[in-house]
Amino acid sequence: MNKQSLLALSPQLLRILALVAVTGLILLFFATQIENYLNGRLFNRISSSVAVMALIATGQTLVILTRNIDLSVGSTVGFTAFAAGSLITLMPDLNPALLVAYAALLGAGFGLVNGLLVAYASVPSIIVTLATMALYRSLLVEFSNAKSITSESLPAWLVDFPNLPVISIGDLQVRAGFLVAVTIVFLAHLALTRLRPARRIFAVGSNPEAAAMAGIDSRRVVLVAFILSGMLAGLAGFMFLARFGNITVVAGLGFELKSIAASVVGGVSINGGSGSVIGAFLGTILVDLIDSSLVRWPIVSEFWREAVLGAMILIAVAVDTLFIRRLDRMRAARAHETALAQQGAKS
Asked: pTM of the entire structure?
């Protein structure tokens, strides 16, 4: 691809192409390090994990696009997973749609608290969500009363749902949980790219002052972003419950770091206003691929996995910043050359 073709592509498309290329290189690298690495079971493991994290990363992306951050998503996942498990244990004949709605609404309620404090009380999001991360986790500890949800107490349809094969090709299986996550990510992408109200998220994140002058209620947009983040974390809590069955007070611990990593590695600007949920989805796959591969790679100890994840965040932010600056300079130079050529043609 030549320089002119490169400049014709949007930054988001370039980021996505780069992510696909990096993912392919990482697959090839670990294939040389781990015996019998490339097989259908690898896809099954990654897709099962992505089915949960993709929902969280999508909500995190919506918040980051507004120049904010949500550190409470892991606690929200844990609480909704335990609450949904408790409800279905007490009411095993409950309609599945009602259980899903219960988890989503519970998560949305947590997001509402975050959004009100950030948008209308003007408290920085990192302070608010750091506090609610601890608060929601403490609520889970109190609510659980030192008890756990076990898979034996859950109905069969719930435990079987995430791993239900929809498409099978040898050992490779496209499962129901993964398809649900892909569908939600796709719908979120369509909303952000096609619906004018959803596009306001980019406007607020890019330039809040200009958005206000254009008549956009920035506070309402931020509030809605946090509510959606909480709702998607609630849905992820339901998926977490269905996938693992055994839920304790540490459920969802560390998910906030992984969701942020997936978003920024996927090209979502930490400064807001730039990024896509498709990129965050690919970032989720990349982060989970590296994380699960490091577990099987004997050279790296368990203690270094989080360090690698943190390094990925730093590298992704640094590379994204340098990439955008370089691309802006190239486009500015091209615009200058075009202007000079037009002036020469007129004279």
From this structure: 0.88
